[in-house]
Amino acid sequence: MMLRTTLLGAAAAFALAPAASAERGSDGHVGVIYWQAPSIPSPYLSGGTKDGDAASVVLEPLARYDQDGNMVPFLAEGIPTLDNGGVSEDLKTITWKLKSGLKWSDGSAVTAADVAFTAEYCMHPEGGCAQLSKFDGVTSVEAVDDLTVKITFGEATPNPYGPFVGGQTPIIQKAQFQNCLGEKAQECTDQNFYPIGTGPFVIKEFKPNDVIQFEANPNYRDPAKPAFATMTLKGGGDATGAGRAVLETGEYDIAWNLQLAPDVLAKMAEGGKGQARSGFGTLVERLEMNLTNPDPALDANTRSTREAPHPFLTDMKVRKALSMAIDRNLLVEIGYGTAGRATCNLVPAPAIYASDNTECLTQDIEGAKALLDEAGWTDSDGDGVRDKDGVKLSILYQTSTNAVRQDFQALIKQWWAEIGVETELRNINASVFFGGDPGSPDTFQKFYADVEMYANNFDGTDPQAYLSMYRCDNEPQPSNQWNGQNINRFCDPEYDKLIDQLARTGDINERAALAKKMNDMLTKDSYVIVPLVDRGRVTGVSNTLGGFVLNTWDNELWNAADWYRMK
User: Fold this and answer.
1) Which of 36, 156, 335, 426 is deepest in the core (most CB within 10 A)?
2) Do 60 and 198 meet the contact criterion of CB atoms below 8 Å apart?
3) How far is Cα 44 from Cα 176, in angstroms, rounded to an integer?
4) Omega before 160 cis (within 30°)?
5) Helices and strands, counts by H and E, the chain
6) HEC states along 255-269?
7) Torsion angle, CA of 552/556/559/560, rounded to 10 degrees?
8) Which residues is 542 bridged to in the sheet?
9) 99-138: per-residue pLDDT in tens?
10) Are strands 254-255 and 274-289 parallel, antiparallel or unpaired?
11) pTM of the model
12) CA-to-CA separations, 100 to 76, 146, 188, 484, in angstroms, rounded
């Protein structure tokens, strides 16, 4: 049975409020501030949200998800379904039709060959792609003619909307990137920093980890859009400074990801220049437990694979005890208020996919101690730190630099100390931590620590590609330029079987049952992922900016073409 309920109902017509202006560029300038500065405007070479967002106003997919989670066509004429013949009866192919007359920002025609090339670029065996799970099960992507592209899967695939749907898998121009395949991908600096796109803006100047200057795309498909002639995306600083720049001073129009305590946000809003908008989606702040040994004495290949298992985090009882010691409700109270909810799930939404797992919501310090005792971890020398066979429970716990995250670190360190675990805290500049630079030792992908904390989410309302990230051998490592998505190096053949089964399952209730089982395998059954908070997305928006639509199912800048200045 074809999956219809949450995905194919999305073929409805797409309409947003029209811009007030009828002339491209007539509203001047718009300013956006991201306190995590973009490092590379490519979702294919970085798993960082900031980088995918920066790319999204230049590079576009065939379809995206609107603010209600519905699929809507962007470069495609419409959404292929079983009913309209776009999806084959055997569920092994999906055929997309491009809109006619589409142009790249350099004036050349957009064709199906560009779509097929994009798949080749991401699926290349000699190079890593940060979105490879989106192409899970794909055997070929073929340009049938200039406007038609056919995607073939190895098995019946009831949910064929992984590739090229959502901001994480946009189309890139073959002519620009054809010499950037495989290992050469990271070397193509000009192409990576200045991609030719189809979106409303083009990059005029890019300063990595600092600022991007955009200008209106002269070949954008709607001659009246964008209303803004130029856009600045300023990066760096902190969430407090970003919030003030919109809510208090009015210097910028949009402030992304205001990860701030509720009282701080309320005080800023008194400035009267803007408002904080929020909405829940699938963004989960969590701890990832490293299953491999991060010892710097080991070489990069060994540290990135299961060849050298972690000296104590391979013990599930240790991981569970660390989770049991945490008071998630207090974390929500101090960090997010009504913009956060304590959770035990990696996939908290939509509701049909959310497990009823609530075991972790009650802190249990004494239970954590007893579990460590049971596992043989005791304080043999009286220094307050448990040990076993000469190995101490001493953790390096890293995350990005942010006031809320540092508050979380301090509390979690205190709780872990109460159960006999020693913790060293490290915080890394967010632009570096989420930057994906293969030469940096400090990225979340390299994971040169025992535990790390961050949040991310998935496009749309179906978690298939997101859960597929934890497939065996999808770990970041030198051979894929550190672009693998299995961050904690989890590997369970039974989990891999469920990935494949989910891809073949069409019934929405059966899919939900599989997704819940996979969520639980990663969380309450193994504790390789320790969820903390289901975070609402909070964005500061200027009172004079029209057309902005908060979207928790795609990305922050998804409808930049529709923004305008209110008169």
Assistant:
1) 36
2) yes
3) 15
4) no
5) 15, 20
6) ECCCCCCHHHHHHHH
7) 170
8) 274
9) 999 999 999 999 999 999 999 999 999 887 999 999 999 9
10) unpaired
11) 0.85
12) 9, 9, 30, 35
